[in-house]
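Supplementary Methods. Inverse-folding protocol.

Structures were first reduced to a discrete structure-token string of length 100. This string, shown here, constituted the complete conditioning input.
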């Protein structure tokens, strides 16, 4: 998590600089703060892959954007399961148990 942590620190530094710029009204520092935040956001996936957590991040992103199926979108209605008739061998088994 070494590279991911560094990317998050860069992003956090950009946030802090942005907060100082907004509160202190320093318009010349706005681009630096925005660039730091954007650079940190770009570095987060790079850090995840560098740390070896790349596949977990990909699975998470796929699950995040996967569309869930709605129950009413099917073309055909669901069939209700049919009940099976009891087999004719069931009484024979019961009769065998009684003999023993």
């Amino acid at each position: 998590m070494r590279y991911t942590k560094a990317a998050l620190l860069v992003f956090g530094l950009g946030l802090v600089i942005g907060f100082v710029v907004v509160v202190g009204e320093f318009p010349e520092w706005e681009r630096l703060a925005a660039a730091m935040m954007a650079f940190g956001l770009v570095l987060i996936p790079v850090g995840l892959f560098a740390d070896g957590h790349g596949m977990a991040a990909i699975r998470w992103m796929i699950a995040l954007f996967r569309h869930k199926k709605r129950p009413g979108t099917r073309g055909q209605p669901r069939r209700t399961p049919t009940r099976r008739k009891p087999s004719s061998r069931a009484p024979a088994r019961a009769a065998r148990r009684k003999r023993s």
